Amino acid sequence: MIALAAATLFRAAFLAALALSLALRLWLSRRQERHVLARRGEVPAPFRGAISLDAHRKAADYTAARARFSRVAAAWDAAVLLLLTLGGGLDVLARLLPGGTLLGGTAFVLAAFLAQGLALLPLSVWRTFRIEQHFGFNRMTPRVFALDLAKGLLVTGVLGAPLALGALWLVARGGAYWWLFAWAGWFLVSVLLAWAYPVLIAPLFNRFRPLEDEALRERIRALLDRTGFRSGGILVMDGSRRSTHANAYFTGIGRRKQVVFFDTLRELLTPDEMEAVLAHELGHFRLRHVRARLLAGAAMSVAGFALLAWLLRRDWFYEGLGAAAPSPQAGLVLFALAAPVFGFILHPLLTAWSRRHEYEADAFAAAHASGDAMAGALVKLVKHNAATLTPDPLHSAFHDTHPPVPLRIARLRTAHG
What we know:
This protein is mainly alpha-helical. It is 73% helix and 4% strand. It has 16 helices and four strands.
């Protein structure tokens, strides 16, 4: 009787959290659409000389389209989640796959996430070939999309199968502290993947070539030297094969660290602006943002593994989420599906932390390159990527890991002045 009451209470809490998160997503998305469209007819004063009214209107329309899509995606995602849990989808998989062995349990875990991915696949197709295509950003063909999907499934299977098998083995054989060993293994694999990604995984999806502009390469090397940063290479990626969006990033750890520019970014920015963007990315490393995020992720994950270990011993956890019979593989999948629902409320805290890091990296770019060049790069990126200059403050605070560009530029100019 007590177990039934606990299961009922947990199911109610799950449904309430799901309803609350969905309602909040829908409300914030609607706010974003209304806020942006209400300011569609006039470019903000500080940007009138740099961004045309047509470009501003395109950004508003693109943002509104993405907001409308996000509402459909949020509802779809919630429906798939309910179908897999309380709707009995995982129980169907459990009946189809033998779960009494480690291999059977591993197959169940992989099949569950494959089913979720396939159910959400239409959203990715619609976003790529309708929204991105309509606004002129998509360059991906159906063939490239299918190849990327196949490669992604292959990589997920190669990496996910040993992880799932190891986790299930530890649950069965690892004793009371199996979760601590599982966390240590997960953390080690995460570090190894960060180290190996530039060499083993990224080339499966994109082509990389050394930066050919000798003058720019020397400027970048000088920047790396004066900031005390050692890189394994300065590369240009063929991002234009899939999208016209422009970006830059660092990848890898240790001697595998690489500077990667999208070819679209290389064509868009001046050498001064490229140097400033790179200095911003360097700032994340030199200011230890990457280390801080890694440690925060490790702390959150060890807490998550401890919670998982506790929940796997509670029958009400399985029954509350619709599982007919408790099993380690069902518990792993249910935890992975339910945790984001309860953790959604943490988004504003995580985005606020990330935005603070972005401001600090901007200041680093201004100190080691040029604040004016960084501001100029941001304006060009806003225009090129059709990012809105007038996001809804609440929506942005909840979802955006980067501060709105007008706020970033205002800080850069204030610091420069």
